[in-house]
Design goal:
Layout (H helix, E strand, L loop, with lengths): L1 E5 L11 H13 L4 E4 L32 H11 L4 E4 L2 E2 L5 H14 L4 E6 L4 H6 L7 H16 L4 E4 L4 E5 L13 E4 L3 H10 L2 E3 L9 H17 L8 E7 L2 H13 L4 E5 L9 H11 L7
Parallel strand pairs: 1-2, 1-11, 2-3, 3-5, 4-5, 5-8, 8-9, 9-10, 10-11
Antiparallel strand pairs: 6-7
Length: 299
């Protein structure tokens, strides 16, 4: 079992402070965490009618005026300060990005990190955010599928070509290529059947994030069936899609949650960071998690 950890969300840590980011990344690397995960929003709406799907209140816990760095720049900063940590997005809102530019940005990041990048992608849930970006909220799933195909085409060795509904190109060069064989791994995020189907068609990993509620066994079983059917239709195997699940970092409950994740077939558990200051309780809390959980599940 691998254990990743999210970078503290803006309401829990000063992630706009470059020194904090470096100290936090080095700390979790030293404690044996396999990966670190960052979040993405181009902007935050002060008022919105869209419902946040991971809280019963339907409201995101992140304040609208929170300091939220660009994820790719933040990942570059983390990569420069660490040696072993895998660095991923959880999740990059893929349809909001230009896929040709994104392909080069992520490939460059993979090069400079020496192959430590995972691109976690989602389609987004804030319709107001999408409208402000002058994009169509209703076709974001279709665009996400095509954007993944564009990324794969541009990351493949040699001259690139692609024929899609939005993008068409032939006989072009996009360099650098990612270090990782087959391109940067793509993690599909989401708890819907559409997300699971996308994971079956395209994903190297699937991350059905259920926040602090933990893994939902019944829903996960249904989603794994969708993955299997979708993968078979795409000429892939369901086993090609690895599973990541979520746990709290509370040492009293995390071990049981990690055991459940292992039984459900997860290869990675992403931990929601505990509250606390770097100069206070946070290092001790994370060290307790290492002793109680990470050390009990040798990779």
């Amino acid at each position: 079992m691998k254990f990743g950890i999210r970078i503290p969300p803006p309401q829990m840590g000063p992630i706009g402070d470059p020194d904090f980011v470096i100290r936090y990344a080095k700390l979790v690397e030293s404690l044996g965490f396999e990966s670190i995960w960052v979040i993405d929003h181009a902007l935050m709406c002060i008022e919105y009618d869209s419902r946040y799907p991971y809280k019963t209140t339907g409201r995101t816990p992140i304040p609208a005026d929170a300091n939220m760095p660009d994820p790719l720049v933040l990942m570059t900063w983390i990569a420069a300060a660490t040696e072993r940590l895998r660095i991923g997005t959880s999740m990059l809102i893929l349809p909001q990005r230009h896929p040709i530019l994104l392909a080069k940005e992520v490939a460059t990041l993979d090069r400079y990190s020496k192959g430590r990048i995972t691109l976690g992608i989602g389609v987004g849930w804030v319709e107001e955010e999408v409208r402000i970006l002058k994009q169509n909220f209703k076709d974001r799933g279709r665009r996400a599928d095509e954007w993944i195909e564009v990324l794969r085409a541009l990351w493949a060795e040699g001259v690139s070509k692609y024929e899609g509904r939005t993008f068409q190109f032939d006989n072009i060069a996009s360099y650098p290529k990612p270090v990782q064989e087959g391109g940067v791994p793509i993690m599909i995020g989401g708890h819907s059947a559409a997300a699971a189907a996308r994971a079956g068609r395209y994903g190297d990993e699937f991350y059905p994030h259920w926040s602090t509620r933990g893994p939902n066994e019944e829903s996960l079983s249904e989603l794994k069936t969708v993955i299997a059917v979708s993968a078979e239709a795409a000429g892939r195997r369901a086993s090609d899609v690895r599973l990541t699940l979520t746990s709290t970092s509370d040492a009293k409950t995390a071990y049981a949650t990690a055991e459940l994740c292992a039984r459900l077939g997860a290869e990675r558990v992403v931990v929601l960071p505990p509250k606390g200051e770097l100069d206070g309780a946070l290092p001790d809390e994370l060290a307790r998690f290492k002793a109680t959980v990470i050390d009990q599940f040798p990779d």
